[in-house]
Amino acid sequence: MAVAQPNLEKESEDCSLLPLVHDIIKCMDKDSQDVHQELAKLKAKIQEAREQISNMPGIDSSPVEQQQQLATLREQVRTKNQLLQKYKSLCMFDVPKAS
């Protein structure tokens, strides 16, 4: 999991298109020649978002498959919690009390 952390930080970058759209509208209002440059930025940002979406884990799974996987993972967590409680109740572990 530690390997995926830097990738998650990159994915959490701002993907808002609104500032670019705002810049395009401002350029159009001013009859500026920068409109094409701003449109190219918007197009690049949209392409980047498409690439991020296509690289997301599970994107190739259907919603039914994702629900089945989620149910399986929840069952595993429930089972592990039950085992943990069982082991805790055996009193085999001397847990030092925090003071």
In short:
With 99 residues, this protein is mainly alpha-helical.
How would you describe this structure to a colleague?
- This protein has 99 residues and is mostly helical.
- It has helices at residues 5-11, 18-29, 35-54, 63-89.
- Helix 2 (18-29) packs antiparallel against helix 3 (35-54).
- The longest helix is centred in the last third of the chain and has 27 residues, at 63-89.
- It starts with a helix and ends in a 10-residue tail after the last helix.
- It folds into two domains: 15-56; 59-91.
- 67% of the residues lie in helices and 0% in strands.
Distance between the termini: 33 Å
Structure classification = mainly alpha
**How would you state the average pLDDT, rounded?**
81
Helix content: 55-70%
Give descriptors for this structure.
99 residues; mainly alpha; 2 domains; 4 helices; 67% helix; nucleus; transcription regulation; Mediator of RNA polymerase II transcription subunit 9
Topology:
Elements: H1 5-11, H2 18-29, H3 35-54, H4 63-89
Helix pairs in contact: 2-3
